[in-house]
Amino acid sequence: MLSNFDKYQMMQELSNLPKPSEKIINHITNFYNNNKPNNASSKWFSKTQNKSINCAEGKFFVDPNLTILAYLEFYSIISDKFRPDIGILQNIFPERGPCFVPPHIDKSRSTALLFAIETGGPECTTSCYKTKHDLYIPNETIMVDYDSVEIISTTRTKPMTWYALNVQAYHSVENITDVRLLFSLSIPSLPYDLFLKKYNHLI
Ligand SMILES: [Fe+2]
After folding, report:
1. How confident is the model over 105-160, as pLDDT tens digits?
2. How many whole angstroms from 68 Cα to the centroid of ligand 1?
3. 30: domain CATH number?
């Protein structure tokens, strides 16, 4: 099944999807200013990594007010069910150098639309992989070490730009030095290749 994943790109810029309004961007920025990181996800990410990987603190939040704003702006364009999320990735151990979200598959979404309000720093990249083994459980978060995957593509995401990402393939975020603040529309049940076919006009 995974061998099909390298036949098409794993991450695609959506230049025709309208940018979110100032209202949404301000809402997310205020949310970030009021939610301080703890060490929980960084510790969890670290469990499958050797000690040389500085793992990011990273979390996706659902906010009911953002859900309303996002549906008002985007449901006429994205007619599939989506979950608006606020994604915050940050380096809580800057003394260890840049940090990483190691290769993983997302649990509760098949396609993610990502809009970075803050990119995570000038060297921050998102990479996509195929596995060297057959371990693939749909909709289950599986985090693996970098030796278990083979890189297919790396993208330096531009700020304030929409991308679609195949989150049912292994993906990671590298070289986070500053906060990476995302507005995300998580699509639970439309696989990435079908999303690109259906919404080809957004590319
Ligand atoms: Fe992810």
Report:
1. 898 899 999 999 999 999 999 999 988 776 666 666 778 888 888 999 999 999 99
2. 23
3. 2.60.120
CA of 190 to the centre of ligand 1 (A): 16
Residue of 100, 164, 102, 167 lying closest to 136 (CA atoms)? 167
Rounded distance from Cα 141 to ligand 1 centre (Å): 9
Three-state DSSP class for residue 197 = helix
Q: Tell me the percentage of the chain whose pLDDT exceeds 70.
A: 91
Q: Could you tell me the distance, in angstroms and rounded to a whole number, from the CA of residue 33 to the centre of ligand 1?
A: 22
Query: Nearest CA to 143 among 164, 157, 129, 156?
Result: 129
- Find out whether 119 and 182 touch, Cβ atoms under 8 Å: no
Gap from CA of 75 to ligand 1 centroid (Å): 23
From the CB of residue 66, how many other CB atoms can be counted at a distance below 10 Å?
Answer: 20
Structural domain count of the chain:
1
170 C-alpha vs ligand 1 centroid, how far in Å? 8
Phi-psi region of 174 (alpha: psi -120 to 50; beta: other; left: phi over 0): beta
Range of the structural domain that residue 41 is part of: 2-202
Ligand 1 centroid–CA 107 distance in Å is: 8
